[in-house]
Amino acid sequence: MTSKTLTMKLKERQKQGKPLFVPYIMAGANGLERLPAEIELLTTHGAAAIEIGVPFSDPVADGPVIQAAGMQALANGTTLKKIIAALQTIHSEVPLVLMGYANSFFHYGIEQLANELKATNVKGLIIPDLPFEHRSLVTPTFDAADLALITLVSLTSPPDRIQTLIEDAEGFVYAVTVNGVTGEDRQYNEQLDQHLQAISEKSPIPVLAGFGVSTHADVQRFASVCEGVVIGSKIVAALQNEPLPKVSELLAKLVGKP
């Protein structure tokens, strides 16, 4: 379905004629008290939406940079409950998307999660280890709370599977660009551009390329065949190693000056 707020916000942003930029950050890696400043910085640099990572002890889709950030967040005492409480105090000008693993959300309680997110700017969730065939475990509750469940499409998905995935997609289609986990400086398949363009041509909602996007050249390349990009590890590493003004300089090089 395409009536979710996240879908509409992204489609509105598309009208500006620029590639959609969706950054990922790990909540609590630098302390939850810095989360508002990180969200504001990313918004200033043109984020169409912002993914907020929920730290988990066994993250199957995360590469070494995001895994390390997640471990730091856990060491800082970050929990899903604390993340939601923090987000309830933050006004974000762009929609937020929680990215985490099924265990975290089901343990918390899907009804409670959806209910508490109503008081935040969270408009979608990414749950990489929730099989597409089991999405009905959450979608009735998410639908009632205007929460989009983001669909991931892998490189190995055949055309008929891709068609099935995008027919029910909402928010945006997360097109995974590598066979593996997240991380910088990945080697891309030669047929990747054709693959992304084929998904974009079929999808009624924006298609964003993610996993390994770490340079301005990557952003330009993928924006020519789909609607935009998700950038994670590059930004997560910068936020952990540099002060915010330096991160601002990096973002300007990646996606353009604010």
Automatic annotation (TrEMBL):
Catalytic reaction equation(s): (1S,2R)-1-C-(indol-3-yl)glycerol 3-phosphate + L-serine = D-glyceraldehyde 3-phosphate + L-tryptophan + H2O
Gene3D superfamilies reported for this sequence: Aldolase class I
Coiled-coil regions, chain positions: none
GO terms for MF: tryptophan synthase activity
UniProt xrefs under SUPFAM superfamilies: Ribulose-phoshate binding barrel
Active site positions: E51, D62
The keyword Secreted is annotated on this UniProt entry: no
Pathway field: Amino-acid biosynthesis; L-tryptophan biosynthesis; L-tryptophan from chorismate: step 5/5
InterPro entries: Aldolase_TIM (IPR013785), RibuloseP-bd_barrel (IPR011060), Trp_synthase_alpha_AS (IPR018204), Trp_synthase_suA (IPR002028)
Keywords: Amino-acid biosynthesis, Aromatic amino acid biosynthesis, Lyase, Tryptophan biosynthesis
Function: The alpha subunit is responsible for the aldol cleavage of indoleglycerol phosphate to indole and glyceraldehyde 3-phosphate.
Family as reported in the entry's similarity comment: Belongs to the TrpA family.
Binding partners and assembly: Tetramer of two alpha and two beta chains.
Protein name: Tryptophan synthase alpha chain
Species, as recorded: Enterococcus entomosocium
